[in-house]
Every structure is written in C-alpha cells, then in structure tokens.
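Before a colleague's protein record goes any further, I have to sign it off. What it holds is a sequence and that sequence's fold in token form. My question to you is simply how this chain folds and whether the tokens agree. Thanks in advance; the entry in question is below:
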Amino acid sequence: MNVEMKPEIKEALKKIKFVDRYKELSGNFSSNLNDLNDRLEDYDIEKVNEIFIRLGYAATFDKKEKFFKVGVLDHSPNYMIWFHIILEHGMTEFVWVVYHNNEVRLGSPWSVYSRVLMNASERIKTPVYRNYMELEGILREAFLMYDDFKSKISNLYSKTHN
C-alpha cells in the first residue's frame, strides 16, 4: 500500500503515540472478534447520542451515509477537523477529516494511519463491542485520542496562519 500522508498529519500522529494507543484500544476491545453473534448487531441512534452527550460531545447522524459526525471549527477560517464514527455489526471504524485552507489534509480510516506509520503489512484490528457499556469505553478512549490530535493540529495550523 503506497499511501502518502501530509507531513504535519504524520508528525501529529506520532506525537500523540497514535499507533501504540490504537493497538491498546484494539487489544482492550477484541475479545469477541470472531464471534459475530456476540456483538451488538444493531444500535439505537438515541442511545449512542446519549453516550456522546455523557462524554461531552455533540454529534449529528448522517442517515444517508450512516455515520456519526463530531466537528470542530475552532473559530478558525483556515482549518476544520471532524471525527466520523461508523458503527456496524458491533465494530467501530473511525475517520478523522482535516481541512486546511480548503484543502483535504486527511480523510482516511484509522487503519490506514497505522499502516502508514508502521509496517504496512501489520494490521491493527478494529475495536469491537458487545453492548453499550463497551461502546462507551471505546468512544471514551477514541475521543481522548481525537482531543490530543486536534490539539496538535490546531496548534500547528494556528502558527502557520496560511
């Protein structure tokens, strides 16, 4: 896989120890990887929104594309950072989307970031959940990672002003 990553994105991901944290998150929520019957197959959008609220985030649900979106504009005209959360078959897929000066700087799933930052043949399994309590645990850590990433990128783009 030959994916290019913008230098400031790569730097921010390394600074927040993205790979180590994603591996840990995956390891903590992988007990039922092979048992499709031991997962929360369908979820209630309202219950998931309650989790977001408890964790301190407001999310919108895109009914057409079937994902939750948490967004940050940080009152800056030159960058925007969003967190897309896809919940399907008891699995989580996370995507950070970054725009800087109206240019997409990042918009791939976490699995792509880890492959760019480490051996491309190595895979980190997506975190899986059996119930809302496990989902909340996954989201709690994912939001901590998001906040750290957002802070690094915001600081960088605030300094560049272009």
